[in-house]
UniProtKB/TrEMBL annotation:
UniProt-annotated stretches for the region Disordered: 1-51, 107-145
Pfam families: NACHT
Organism: Patiria miniata
Alphabetical keyword list: ATP-binding, Nucleotide-binding
Keyword Nucleotide-binding appears in the UniProt entry: yes
Database matches in InterPro entries: Leu-rich_rpt_Cys-con_subtyp, LRR_dom_sf, NACHT_NTPase, P-loop_NTPase
SMART domains: LRR_CC, LRR_RI
Protein name, as recorded: NACHT domain-containing protein
Gene3D superfamilies: P-loop containing nucleotide triphosphate hydrolases, Ribonuclease Inhibitor
Gene Ontology MF terms in the entry: ATP binding
All copies of domain NACHT, residue ranges: 233-357
Polar residues composition-biased segments: 11-24, 31-51, 120-140
Length: 1131
């Protein structure tokens, strides 16, 4: 027994003599551990300047350093200088067991770098003893105050770290770099660099300075900082099953092992599977258990010391927190959880992956707390999908292209492919079959059969029984109020559960419930798999049971995939579901059954529900005609589809084809009543080709619009071929399809099949000069074409080489629009020359071709020959004064011209300047002069000149800033325009209070129907802080005038003047004064309300009216003819 006298101290110079028994015991332990006294001296011996000694009060004959693993290393004298050495009260003789780690730290060693120690080489480490995890963890851990395990030098740490680094990199680049392609296929693997594709990562913003944003790569995770500028060293990768979290972790490890620049900041990277960890598992144990060879020579204690000493160079990747058995017991500080919550290794870097179901547990106070980076792993984007498939079929590029095209052709496939797991299934099926099924149901049929064949020896009947047994449980979960996705083992039949887990369509995870009870949580690998199994179970029910099941469902449209799978290749179920959808969504009772969501408009809901019903028809692949009421609700007189994807359009064409080929007499009227088909911003896919099966039955089809549909040459050819059967088709609009650029030679010849076509629109198609030539050549074979719109194809750039001569062969052409096409003077010359042969052509639009500025001398003579012209638009062509003179001279020789649109240079103070061409405008019915008049006197003179144009019914003038607040000068002269019906002022900037002068003048114009003020600049303080655009001041309707002054912020006095003028007309039926501050002015203007005998509607929104104002306004209105008053949004 040791002497308990505290006064006895060990001398630093004496040696304690051990007894014979003690010496024998020491030799026995040394023999067991394989470490001799000399070897121990070599391990502990340091350079003279780093030599350590023990300050002891008594003479020690032997110092034994005994670790927790029972390793005994005998040494000679060991000196430990310093002021913080512990004092030992020990006997004069005997063995002293010191549990304290002693390291030698050179003064010049950097804090985060293992120093090279000259003259000191590592020795063979001691044989490892029992796992440190076997120690008693009931007492608080105080590493720096316990007795040392043994002495560890920097050389040993350096050697252990280097050896570990080499071993890890070898592992990550060899077996660790091969990814198991799918959980249930053990022998199907690929190298990670052959299959890895960048995922869509999105920072959620917790604990970081930035808000939610999309990350360019996983490397960004390591560069987030706190508001104080400190690096954030904890990160969570959160994503659904199959989104690629584990593969991302493997890719990080491989990048580090392959010396990627992204992770070179880390000396060691540990990838640990949390499913293999226990609650108290220590990091060092997990490393040796999961990553290092069992016969490794790496010194466990030295590696542990390195991790604790240099945490900033350590990255720990913990994969699968959702598979970890979490305990509510106190976290052991030395465990992996202690690293997560920063109890130890605070400065090391930790990344944890988890599913959303466990994110709250991970973000609890016990584990990860702020600051940390929360990253959402969203799976693949469309570009990622293409990259993944290309990598998968790296040696089969043709297969890769085929599969990408197939996926992109289907919105459903594209959506499913965002999940790496489901995309992998598609790749496997494509690799085996060279194709994918046409319907989602058949895709899942083949996928389920594939995984069963790989892992289970079952007949098709046995596989079906397993799926149906799973489906019974799956349906209960789906129809529960919270849509259960996790189940217990007892919920399933044991045989079905075992088979499903074996093949991999179910996953089993350990969970801890109340009272620390451990149980297994069962989940389907993807929600769509759960819905598929549920549908297979529903197929086994009787019709009554099937109907009763869905009678319990409040919102059928929330079960899209369940309904689709139910209809899959099952005619009976599809008819029931379509009738339910028709009853819920396509009758008057639908409001009570399915209320409109606050997030979607009713129109959006109807569209979504229509798409669902059509998809169900497609999944059924039934030859039976869908319910009649459903067909009549889909095939209407005007079919308008906007933003539809390929799947929805394919389903729509499937229904049309079913109706077309049906032999039932009642189906004929449905397609026969269709008069127009309008597709806008749709992904047409096979629709253009499928249209061939139904176009012939549309015996009254007149118009087809395919706008912004990214049409290809093949699409146009298919459309033209299909519509050639529609003998009543007269209008075709292919606008905003820039994908047609440069390929007119492939698609324009097909237009010649449309013999009945009268109107063709190809604006905004980015047609090139050669495209123009091909299009005009083809259209010359359409003798019935009367309207051609080629506007906004501004890739011409004044080419001057377009062959417009083919226009002369379009004998019936009446209207030609080539505005905004970058035409030059030579082009315009050819156009006027060609159309001069067309006696029926009455309208040409050449506006927005600024390149013809100064070129009127080239084409004005040809313009004279267009005797038949009635409407000419040269607006915004930057015509010079000389151009206008020549144009005016030519117009004198065009007797039938009724409408002219011009833009001229600014008229600055000379009232005679516009006379030269205004005199020629007297025969016009409509004159739009886009001329910036800078003087009130000039404007007055212009009005006087136009007053003699007795046919003038529409006038459009543009203001300049010099005309501000000058209405009192020129407005009185407007009354001279006695026949004018529409008056428009562009870019009006004056104070709107001056509108009283305009109102007074308009009140004296007997034929005026509409006065429009278009304001370009936001110079007024409107209630809604928006620009005033096209304020319809006065508009004529059936039986009266509408006065619209909304948003003008007029004062009460201004309104008083306007109303006083309007009451003299006696035909004001509607008035909108919204946005004016009227409170306090009621005594001035409201008295006029009683004189508006024909007023039917009064709108006073946002007028700052109080309750007293409202009361007096209502009293002033009296009975009269008023039927509607809007006083909303007032005080």
């Amino acid at each position: 027994m040791a002497d308990k006298d505290p006064r006895k101290r060990c001398s630093p110079t004496q040696e304690t003599q051990a007894s014979g028994n003690q010496q024998q015991e020491t030799e026995r332990k040394q023999a067991n551990t394989g470490v001799t006294q000399n070897e121990t001296r070599q391990m502990v011996q340091a350079r003279p300047e780093t030599q350590v000694s023990l300050d002891m009060a008594s003479q020690l004959t032997q110092l034994t350093l005994e670790s927790k693993s029972a390793q005994i290393c005998s040494t000679g004298s060991v000196n430990v200088p310093g002021d913080y050495n512990p004092s030992f009260h020990a006997p004069v003789s005997g063995t002293v067991n010191i549990h304290y780690n002693v390291t030698a730290n050179p003064k010049d060693a950097p804090p985060n770098q293992v120093p090279e120690i000259p003259g000191c080489s590592s020795t063979e480490p001691c044989t490892q003893g029992p796992s440190p995890s076997t120690q008693d963890t009931s007492q608080p851990f105080k590493r720096h105050h316990q007795v040392p395990e043994r002495v560890v030098t920097y050389a040993e740490m350096h050697t252990a770290a280097n050896s570990c680094e080499a071993a890890l990199k070898s592992h990550y680049k060899s077996t660790g770099s091969y990814v198991q392609m799918i959980p249930w296929v053990d022998d199907d693997t690929k190298h990670i660099m052959d299959i890895y594709t960048t995922l869509l990562l999105e920072s959620m913003g917790e604990g970081v300075v930035c808000s939610r944003l999309e990350l360019e790569s996983y490397q960004d995770i390591f560069f987030f900082k706190t508001k104080e500028g400190d690096a954030i060293k904890r990160a969570i990768l959160n994503g659904l099953a199959g989104r690629g979290k584990s593969t991302l972790v493997d890719k990080m490890a491989y990048d580090w092992a392959a010396f990627s620049q992204a992770l070179r900041m880390f000396k060691l990277v540990f990838v640990l599977k949390m499913c293999a960890l226990e609650h108290n598992s220590e990091l060092i144990d997990a490393i040796f258990d999961q990553l290092l060879d069992h016969d490794t020579k790496i010194d466990r204690l030295a590696l542990k010391e390195f991790i604790h000493s240099y945490p900033n160079g350590i990255l720990v990747l913990l994969d699968g927190f959702d598979e970890f058995t979490m305990s509510t017991a106190k976290i052991c500080p030395e465990s992996v959880l202690g690293i997560i919550n920063r109890k130890i290794c605070r400065e090391c870097w930790v990344v944890v992956t988890t599913r959303p179901s466990h994110i709250n547990s991970l973000m609890s106070k016990q584990l990860i707390q702020d600051p940390f980076t929360h990253v959402l792993v969203s799976g693949f984007s469309s570009d990622n999908i293409q990259e993944y498939v290309t990598r998968f079929f790296s040696t089969e590029p043709v297969s890769a292209v085929g599969l990408v095209e197939k996926i992109q052709s289907s919105g459903v496939s594209s959506d499913l492919a965002k999940s790496p797991m489901l995309l992998l299934l598609m790749c496997l099926l494509w690799r085996n079959n060279g194709s994918l099924p046409e319907t989602t149901t058949r895709l899942y049929d083949q996928a389920i059969q594939y995984v069963f064949r790989r892992k289970a020896d079952m007949s098709p009947e046995e596989m079906s029984d397993v799926v149906i047994a799973l489906g019974k449980v799956a349906l209960v979960g789906l129809l529960s109020p919270d849509q259960l996705l996790c189940f217990g083992e007892r919920d399933f039949e044991k045989s079905a559960l075992d088979a499903a887990v074996k093949v991999g369509i179910l996953t089993k995870q350990r969970e801890i419930g109340q009272g620390l009870k451990v149980y297994n949580s069962i989940q389907f690998i993807h929600k769509t798999i759960q819905e598929y199994c549920a549908a297979k179970y529903l197929h086994t029910l009787s019709e009554d049971e099937f109907q009763k099941t869905f009678d319990k469902v409040d919102r059928l449209d929330e079960y899209e995939y369940l309904l689709r799978f139910c209809c899959g290749d099952n005619d009976a179920c599809s008819q029931i579901i379509l009738r339910m959808l028709e009853r819920c969504f396509f009758t008057e009772q639908k409001e009570a059954y399915a209320p409109v969501s606050k997030m979607l408009s009713r129109e959006q809901h109807e569209t979504r529900r229509t798409k669902l019903a059509l998809s169900c028809c497609l999944e059924s692949q039934s030859k039976t005609l869908p319910p009649v009421d459903f067909v009549s609700s889909v095939l209407t007189t005007e079919i308008s589809l906007s933003d539809w994807d390929r799947d929805s359009l394919h389903a729509f064409s499937f229904v049309m084809e079913s109706v077309a080929i049906s032999t039932k007499k009642e189906t004929k009227p449905y397609l026969a009543k269709v008069q127009s088909v309008n597709l806008q911003s749709c992904k047409v896919g096979k629709f253009c080709e499928d249209l061939e099966h139904s176009a012939g039955a549309m015996t009254n089809l007149e118009q087809v619009n395919l706008v912004r549909c990214s049409l290809t040459a093949t699409n146009v050819s298919n459309v033209a071929s299909s519509l050639s059967q529609a003998t009543t088709l007269t209008k075709l609009d292919l606008s905003h399809n820039k994908t047609l650029s440069g390929s007119a030679n492939l698609w324009s010849p097909s237009l010649t099949h449309l013999k009945s076509l009268k109107s063709l629109t190809l604006k905004y198609c980015s047609l090139m000069p050669e495209d123009w030539r091909q299009v005009l050549l083809s259209l010359s074979e359409l003798p019935g074409l009367i309207e051609l719109d080629l506007s906004s194809n501004n890739e011409m750039q004044c080419s001057g080489n377009i062959c417009f001569t083919h226009l002369r062969y379009c004998k019936c052409l009446q209207r030609l629009d080539v505005s905004n096409c970058s035409l030059g003077g030579t082009d315009v010359t050819q156009i006027f020359t060609s159309v001069s042969y067309l006696t029926g052509l009455v309208e040409i639009n050449l506006s927005l071709n600024e390149s013809i500025s100064g070129s009127a001398s080239q084409w004005s003579n040809q313009l004279e020959d267009c005797k038949h012209l009635k409407k000419l638009n040269l607006k915004h062509c930057s015509l010079t004064g000389g151009d206008l003179m020549q144009v005016a001279a030519s117009l004198r020789k065009i007797p039938n011209l009724m409408e002219l649109y011009l833009s001229s240079p600014d008229v600055e103070g000379d009232p005679v300047a516009p006379r030269c061409y205004l005199e020629q405008m007297k025969p016009l019915h409509k004159f739009d002069i886009h001329c910036r008049i800078t003087s009130a006197s000039v404007l007055k003179h212009v009005i006087e000149l136009l007053s003699s144009a007795t046919n003038l019914v529409e006038l459009n003038l543009i203001f300049s800033y010099q005309l501000e607040n000058s209405m009192a000068v020129w407005c009185p002269h407007l009354k001279q325009l006695k026949n004018l019906r529409r008056l428009t002022f562009d870019e009006y900037r004056s104070e709107l209070q001056d509108l009283s002068h305009l109102a007074l003048a308009v009140g004296q114009m007997p034929n005026i129907q509409e006065c429009v003020i278009s304001h370009e600049y936001g110079v007024f303080d409107f209630i809604t802080n928006t620009l005033l655009s096209e304020t319809n001041l006065v508009a004529i309707t059936n039986g009266g005038i509408i006065l619209n002054l909304s948003g003008c912020s007029l004062s009460g006095e201004a309104i008083d003047t306007i109303l006083e003028t309007m009451t003299k007309r006696g035909d004001l039926i509607e008035m909108n004064l919204s946005g004016s501050t009227l409170t306090g002015y009621k005594a001035v203007w409201y008295k006029h309300l009683k004189n508006l005998k024909l007023l039917r509607k009064l709108v006073l929104r946002h007028c700052s009216l109080n309750s007293q104002d409202v009361k007096e306004i209502r009293e002033a209105l009296g009975a009269g003819s008023l039927v509607e008053v809007d006083l909303s949004q007032n005080e």
